[in-house]
Structure formats: C-alpha cells, structure tokens
Description:
Layout: E1 5-12, H1 34-39, H2 41-50, E2 56-59, H3 63-74, E3 82-84, H4 130-147, E4 152-157, H5 159-170, H6 174-177, E5 187-193, E6 196-204
Parallel strand pairs: 1-4, 2-3, 2-4
Antiparallel strand pairs: 1-5, 5-6
Helix pairs in contact: 2-3, 4-5
Amino acid sequence: MHVETTRFWLIRHALVDPEARKFLYGTEDVPICEDTLAAQTEAYAALGRRLPQEAVWLVTPLSRTRRTAEAIFAAGYPQAPLTVEPDLIEQSFGALQGTPGARLSEKLTLPAHDFWPTSHAERPEGGESFEDVILRVGRVMERLASDHRGRDIVAVCHGGAIRAAIASALGIGGEAALRLTVGNISLTRVEQRGQAWRVVSANETVDGVPAF
C-alpha cells in the first residue's frame, strides 16, 4: 500500500537588525539587518538550490519572514505565491517584549533556560510558555500536513517555531528542544509519512553562514 509523505522545509528568517537584538522582541515586527542580507546573496542562492521547485510557500505575519523569502527568490529561486500562516509565528513573550536583554532576568519568575531568554515553562503575562508553542506548532503542522497531503511545504518562520516543530515530531519536551541550535537562514526538514512524523535534518547551514 502506498503511504504518502508530506515534506516540510523549515527556514529560519534572516538575522534581524542589531538594534532589535538588544531587546526581547518575540512577535514584534522588527526589521532584518539589511547589510547582512546584502552580504549573503550567494548563501540565499545556495539555499534556494536545495529547495523543491514545486512547493507550497508559507510565511508568518512578521515582515522578517517575508523579506527572507523574497531574498531567496531574488537570488534565483522561481517566484512563488506566499501564504501567511499565523500559527507558525515566534513565541509571544507578552509583557516581557521590549525588555532590554540586560534587564530581562529581573522580570522572570523562573530561571532562564541556558539557550533561550526564558524557561521553557515561563508563561509571561499576555504571552506563551515554550510548552504552549510546542502545542500550537504541533497542531498547525498536523493541519498543514492534512491540507497539503503528499506535497512539499516550504515555511519561512522562526527559531522558536522550528524548535517546537522538532519537539512535536519527536515527542520531546520544551527543556530539551531549546537545546537545539537553529541558525538564521538554516534549513530543517521534517516529514509526515502516513500519520508518523520524523526529523530528516536540523539546522542545515550554508558554508560561511554562522548559526546564531
């Protein structure tokens, strides 16, 4: 019996502007670093060559994902329609967003994770915990796999969402998932075969592009 495979190609957005990186921005619509974008044209071309030609393309409501997709198109990948998928957005840090990095620890109720601004269990006022993000992203991955059964889906999204997609696919918790590195403009591949999920690769990077 033929079992259909739905393939997700998850790309973390381009590096954001240096001024934005001084604060916890989460779901704020901060600009990308245009100088870095211009310097990495070949990296975008190389990334585009690794992507399937016939694919559904998704971005989130934040401009940094659309600008990243546009950079891939500008570097040679054939232009494709972009559909906005809100449920692939970054973790909302609620009332903590806009806090300077140096002052963030003063506002946390739990010790921060070693590799994330907050604990996986911290749910800021008006925001989400990372465990919430895993549930949200897991649900949207199931929906997308059902809606686009057997297709390739390229989603330009966020580091938190990609870690959450891996966590959902592997059935691991947030504390472990936040130990995964997901660099800017890196590629992570997740598949659903039948009803089973697997991670094909994580944090594939182009030579010369550091994983931040």
